[in-house]
Amino acid sequence: MTDLIKSRIPDLAACGALAAFGLAAIWIGSGYPIGSINRMGAGFFPIAASIIVVVLAVAAAVETLLSEPVSQPFKLRPVIFISVGIFVWARLIDSVGLIPATFALILLSGLAKPPFRPVSLIISAAVLCAAGYLVFM
Amino acid sequence: METIHNLGLGFEAALSAENLLFCLLGVSLGTFVGVLPGIGALATISMCLPLTFYLDPVPGMIMLAGIFYGAQYGSSTASILLNLPGSAPAAITCLDGYPMAQQGRAGVALFLTTIASFVGGSFSIMLMIGFAPVLADFAISFSSADYFSIMVLALVAASTLSNGSFIKGIAMVAAGLVLGLVGTDISSGVPRYTFGIIDISDGISLVAVAMGLFGVAEILNNLMQDEHAVVDARSITFKSLVPTRQDMREFWPAAGRGSVIGAIVGMLPGTGPTIATFMSYSAEKRLSRNPGKFGKGAIEGISSPEAANNSSVQAAFIPTLTLGIPGDAIMAVILGGMLIHGIAPGPQLIANDPVLFWGVIASFWIGNVFLLILNIPLIGIWVRLLTVPYHLLYPGMLFFICIGVYSVNNSTFDVMLTLIFGLIGFGMMRFGFPAAPLLLGFVLGPLIEENFRRALVLSRGNLDVFVSRPVSATFLGLTLLVLLASIPQVRGLFGLIAKGRKGQAVNE
Lengths: 137, 508
What we know:
Chain A has about 140 residues and is mainly alpha-helical. Chain A has 6 helices and 2 strands, in the order H-H-E-E-H-H-H-H. Helix content of chain A is about 75%, strand content about 5%. Chain A is flat, with a radius of gyration of 23 Å. By secondary structure, chain B is mainly alpha-helical. Chain B contains 23 helices and 2 strands. In chain B, helix 6 (about 105-140) runs antiparallel to helix 16 (about 355-375). Chain B has a two-stranded antiparallel sheet with strand order 1-2. At the A-B interface, helix 2, strand 2, helix 3, helix 4 and helix 5 of A face helix 8, helix 9, helix 18, helix 19 and helix 20 of B.
């Protein structure tokens, strides 16, 4: 019994997160006017959709318990470097501009997957800056 | 006569230098991302969406559509050479395409999948020319209740017919609906789920959601895997492309059947190219006198699904343009792009904006001819593309995601939002929650709410309106059928419960 749950904790947590999302949406939505069936307020539809989310999140959790757990390879490194790269780009773009932001993004995200090739990354950052400037700015 | 006149109008628009250029750009970009595994048409279309805001709607639409069908041409390349689909619908092409490559017939497979794509695409374009105006005339009389029911079918079909758990699929549709409702309520002006943040007072940015779920999440997922095998680009010579006469005899009927299946599937709301390819493959296997050859390099096994793939992609424009209801997540993004341009697709579109409608259709023909040239004489270039290592590609993709999202509103908030949706999407992928239904729900959320409300206002709160109108009743009936069709899964679930109990009893 404990094994049934233990091997599926990540999957169950995912279902739990979805249910929490739905419950939060119901709770916030209950602050909006519900209205009546022939003149619906702003709250009616969001609450209805959120109830479906919660019910199906519970159903998905049951389904998880009934099926075999699957394990996939997971590496923390890409998640960290990709997140930091995008975060830094977003922080830098308005304050110091496109070129430093892009070099930071390319070099940081380049660390997500070995081998780290600083030279080719710097070249590609330079090319991308030029392309980005031409196309978007 | 009128059709010829309209087509003339369309070709006049599509053949202008600007539109030709954006058509070529779209299909080239589409082939590029189609060939590369790990970046799909959806991420690319969302990346290019901000670019089209600087363009007129006609070239913008021509380019976005070109990426979509161009990617279908390209996606078979990696399936054949690497046994790794360039995008989801091309997964089926691996089954017989890769064995052909192992037998040294990769060139023939590449050639035939391109021709099959062209046949399928052409079939649906002709269907569109003939059928779309008729459907639009018919759809003018559709009421809000009818639209509501068609959208319900689209959402249910999209989540139940895809692979994986159908409970999770519908859960994602509902979550997408909720996310789609974020922003100011159009009928009452009440801000919903905005937490006082100005950046989302008009709703969450479609580009941020799409890029996060399909761009960032896809990159993260790819980085978890080890690098794929490398191709020998020199093996694809021009001579190796030529099929034998026997190949061609097997090819034509299969491509024809695939085109028809693809067109039907593509027109239905909620069913995309992936389903079309699976259906056509199983149809070929059932029809064949020699089913044993499938999986070992059968010509029918690559021709029919590739034709179905492109046929369904072109046919998917029929409901999107004439009803304003997208059939799958990619069409939903294209629809979102049109709405941002101030074009409301629907039955009025052909009458109100004939240059756009017929121009886009004419560009499909032109684009498909471009694709023939790009994929047969120039196939060597695309094959070489597969030799570029992933660790050089993904930083560039991330850059285009960031700058693409940023350029919509010059908003760093949207870039952060993309990162958040990327992490959520990565989690969803790992735990088997499909992202495509979520995106479809996200785009359809406001539309479905509006039609639901309006239908009930008009009927004074009487719910009968959804079953008393024939069109609405038909589509709700179809929805029920789709749900019933997934009953074997429900039955399977009960079987599992019984088994689980037994297993438990043994453990105890």
